[in-house]
Amino acid sequence: MTHPDARYLQAAIAGDALASRKMALISGPRQVGKTTLGRGLLSTPTNYYSWDDARFRVAWATDPIDAIALRGPGAVLLDEIHKDPNWKDRLKGLYDLRGADMPIVVTGSARLDVFRRGGDSMLGRYLPYRLYPFTVGESAKPPAPDALRIGVQATFAWSDLQRLGGFPEPLLGGSEGRARRWSRLRIERLVTEDVRDLRNVRDLRALRQLADLLPSRVGSLLSINALCEVLQLSFATVRDWLTVLGELYNCFELRAWQANVARSLQQATKLYLYDPLPVADLALRRENLVALHLRKACHYWTDLAIAECELWFVRTKDGAEVDFLLTREGKPWMLVECKTGDTAPARQLVSYGKLLDCPHRIQLVEVDGYDREYPELGVRVMGYERFLAGLV
Predict the structure, then answer these.
(1) What residues pair up with 106 in beta bridges, in sequence order?
(2) Number of structural domains, the chain?
(3) Do 290 and 157 sit in the same domain of this protein?
(4) Hey, is 3 helix, strand or coil?
(5) Residue at 137 is within a domain
(6) Given this model, what pLDDT does residue 309 score?
(7) Calpha distance 128→116 (Å, rounded)
């Protein structure tokens, strides 16, 4: 296992937001490495300011400019300041008065992203970035969509990601037992601490029960009614709690693609987790990891204005499905089907590829180093690691 010298967003943020004197707002899951990424953007280590530092907290509430008066040259990192109820106004004032003199990086939990989307008081003053866990092809210089590096050396082994997940601490620690413990403690802290910071949820026990049910729903059509029956809660409550868990980067939903697909499902979604370790079924855990790889690439290309990309799945009412569809500028661009050992091109991948006129049709198999093209079908079958190493 090799370790990249810098996270995949570091150079991009330095050359994008900071170079244009806009604030960089970095959000993402708990313990994904946001603070480490932010520190990597500093030329002066002492330019790190954290809301958890009581002295800085008092100074910030009094006068944000005075709070960083002793800063050195280069960028300033403000960590977790969104916990200040008036963080937007104070940050806006700081940027308006000092933004031309110093680059500003703001890192925080999912609340940062939620509150950022809640108003326009800082419109035009910042650029948002979403940080994801480590992936097979993690590198300091991720590829653009037209320059995917299929077949390059993996940064992190696919087998390690399946065992340990992609979060830095468990992946770099290398212990399956400690990784499972880390995963359990992470969801406990998310429910008991992060949820209360974001919403007034009275029944945290039932919310934890919902979170515990989600791993068994990964990869299948999400039925909120079924969850309601188990939890004995209303549809509105479960739907709202799923939104909360999504805002806190515990899970995300993909929608079914409908354009040009006869008998496509209406309003159907599938659910995946940012931490795949609780998913017991290994095939579904692989599918979950592929979803994370593809969504990470979509968000990187979109956040950096390289291309507008979005991730979907394709399924008709009779059950014919392709696991993932990646669109580019609103048009089908890549279909990805996850298999175990079946190297023959899947019928639905071939048919949907032709129907949607999709230029890239990929079937992934759990066969190391496998790579075969079927030009007459427009399909390429290859091993998971070989394909994923070429992504972001």
Answers:
(1) 25, 78
(2) 2
(3) yes
(4) coil
(5) no
(6) 98
(7) 9
> Which residue reads 């579904």 in tokens?
284
Domain identity same for 266 and 332: yes
State residue 3's pLDDT score: 62
pLDDT at residue 294, as a whole number = 98
What is the domain-level CATH number for residue 69? 3.40.50.300
> Which residue has 């007459």 as its token pair?
376
140: in domain: no
CA distance 365 to 385: 9
Q: Are 77 and 156 members of one domain? A: no
User: Which structural domain, as residue segments, surrounds residue 197?
Assistant: 145-388
At 116 the pLDDT is: 57
Q: Which amino acid is at 11?
A: A
Helix (H, G, I), strand (E, B) or coil at 13: helix
Spatial separation of the C-alpha atoms in residues 189 and 267, rounded to whole Å: 32
Give me the pLDDT at residue 113, please.
Answer: 65
In whole angstroms, what is the distance from residue 341 CA to residue 16 CA?
Answer: 42
Q: How far is CA 295 from CA 235, 290, 313, in A?
A: 27, 8, 12
- Residue 361 CA to residue 374 CA, distance in Å, equals 10
Q: How would DSSP label each residue in 157-224?
A: -HHHHHHH-SSHHHHHH--HHHHHHHHHHHHHHIIIIIHHHH---S-HHHHHHHHHHGGGGTTSB--H
- Number of H helices and number of E strands within the chain? 16, 13
Does the reported pTM lie above 0.90? yes
68: left (phi over 0), alpha (psi -120 to 50) or beta: alpha
Do 109 and 169 have their domain in common?
no
Residue 307 is predicted with a pLDDT of: 97
Is 1 a member of any domain? no
Residue ranges of the chain with pLDDT lower than 70? 1-4, 110-111, 113-122, 262-266
273: in domain: yes
Residue the block writes with tokens 């507008």: 308
210/339 same-domain check: yes
CA–CA separation, 382 and 158 (whole Å)? 13
Q: Considering 130, 157, 180, which residue would you say is the last residue of a domain?
A: 130
